[in-house]
Amino acid sequence: MSEPAANVKLTRNQQLVYDALTGAETPLSAYSLLDQLRDSGFRAPLQVYRALEKLIELGQVHRLESINSFVACQHSDCDHHKAVAFAICSSCEHVDELTSAELSKLVATISDASNFTLEGSVVELRGKCQACAQQSTGESD
């Protein structure tokens, strides 16, 4: 079993969802998780959504809005960042979680200038990972 961040106690369903996400090579939708976890006792989408909701609240999972999918957090200190970015490969669907103090500062500056109280921000970058970009370049030769 994968381990969530220290001092986080998960229910059985939350742990199963977390393990499925940490073992996945690409982001998973709630329905993909349900299909994958049926043999573990999951019968309804609500079970998956409740587990995901709590995992997101705990900072263990992120929702990728643009592809309506979920990934396990790749950084133990996500709760220290007001902004996180994801590089999503449009070819292989690989996702890298990126954190940057500069990104957090920029997002904070923009929200402050708008008199907006920032609770968090997710930036999704779409494109091709290095491997897929190299493969595309090699195919055009």
Low-confidence stretches: none
Strand order of the largest sheet: 4-3-5
Name of the CATH homologous superfamily of the largest domain: Winged helix-like DNA-binding domain superfamily/Winged helix DNA-binding domain
Proportion of helical residues: 25-40%
- So how many helices? 5
Largest β sheet strand count, sense and barrel closure: 3 strands, mixed
Written description of the protein model:
The protein is α+β, with helices and mostly antiparallel strands and 141 residues long. The relative contact order is 0.14. The mean pLDDT is 90. The strands form 2 sheets. The chain has a 3-stranded mixed sheet. Strands 1-2 form a two-stranded antiparallel ribbon. The protein has 5 helices and 5 strands, in the order H-H-H-E-E-E-E-H-E-H. The protein folds into 2 domains: 74 residues, Arc Repressor Mutant, subunit A (Orthogonal Bundle); 61 residues, 2-Layer Sandwich (Dna Ligase, domain 1), CATH 3.30.1490.
Can I get a quick summary?
The chain has 141 residues and is an alpha+beta fold. The protein is built from five helices and five strands, in the order αααββββαβα.
Features:
Dna Ligase, domain 1, 141 residues, 2 domains, alpha+beta
Can you lay out the helices and strands and say which pair or pack?
Blueprint lengths: L11 H12 L6 H8 L7 H13 L3 E4 L4 E4 L10 E7 L5 E4 L2 H13 L7 E7 L2 H10 L2
Parallel strand pairs: 3-5
Antiparallel strand pairs: 1-2, 3-4
